[in-house]
Amino acid sequence: MSDRSRRQFFRASLMAGAAAFAVAPAASAIEPIRRSGRTRMRLSLAAYSFNRFLDLRKPAMTLDGFIDLAAGLPFDAVELTAYYFRETTTRYLAGLKGRCTRWGLDVSGTAVGNNFATANAGRLKEQIADVKRWIERTSLLGGKTMRIFAGSVDKGDKEEQARRRCIAAIQEACEHAGQFGIYLALENHGGLTTTPEQMLALVRGVKSDWFGVNLDTGNFHTADPYADLARLAPYAVNVQLKTEIRRAGQKAEEADLKRLVTMLRDSSYRGYVALEYEAAEDARKAVPRYAPQLQRLLSE
Question: What is the DSSP letter of 50?
Fold first, then answer.
């Protein structure tokens, strides 16, 4: 093939790829992700499902053990939460990645605890630096997304000011994430993201191709959580699926998993759906029961 033919081939390939998967240009606010073709979803297991066992203050399980557990169930991937890493050396991260590879598991992504709403300038700088460090660690692990949070309004501060700081911090973090091919996924998780309106105000304020939503199906405690989740689904680059939902003023109820998966399919979602189990039953018993059910739903 001549050099000219190669250039023509690559140009045509790039144009075809752009038509199949288009996102908003970096110069404008994020828009719903436009995806064409058949929906593709793969099942992951969030380490936070085993929070009571992985807690480093009194661990009954290691990340190695968590990976081994996931490998024995019908999961395609694992999400490794920052809270449970006993160290973050390159050797340790490589070991975890290698363990997943040997089991045939992907690392769908990671999650880090952060507060980008704080009015304390020094603390905000530290939070941004920590997120950047975890972006690099996520890259070493082979992850594709990293869950981040907005935070809550400090006492005496105003929401609009906190939102502006949060947007600027996310923007800076996304610029770093783009260098490593990692999508930052903002979770609907109380504080500045309690309602879909608050969440969308943040999402539409960030101007980056390396940004999207982590859709947590259990975190909207509104009158109609399903309808509110559907509003955000088109922006999702990662999904945390909970087995319960909680409507405003009511107790937790069993989530309609088929309805949630159908919602994702209707929005043409492609990506990982991570089971994040938080209900009362022991996760060691509940997760093996939910895994095959979810795998069937995602494969329909």
Answer: G
